[in-house]
Design a protein that fits this description.
Length: about 80
């Protein structure tokens, strides 16, 4: 029979922010690994398309990359 798992954090509901996947630890124990939400990246305020040349990161990660990685000189061609 498969081993039962319980959440490791206080949130006990299957929500978007509480996604998990089962993995085996080096000690042979089955445990949950929490997954981060996928990043969408910045979009144009006028037309809503993704901005080219800027990586899709979670909001806090933009503080860790340099300024030149947060800007783009690529312009839209109509």
């Amino acid at each position: 029979m498969a081993q039962r798992l319980t959440y490791r954090r206080r949130l006990s509901y299957n929500t978007r922010s509480n996604r998990v996947r089962a993995t085996k630890t080096p000690g042979g124990k089955l445990t949950w690994l929490y997954e981060k939400k996928p990043a969408k990246g910045p979009h144009c305020g006028d037309c809503g398309i993704r901005l080219a040349g800027i990586p899709a990161l979670r909001p806090r990660q933009y503080a860790k990359i340099s300024k030149r990685q947060k800007n783009s000189s690529k312009s839209l061609r109509w």
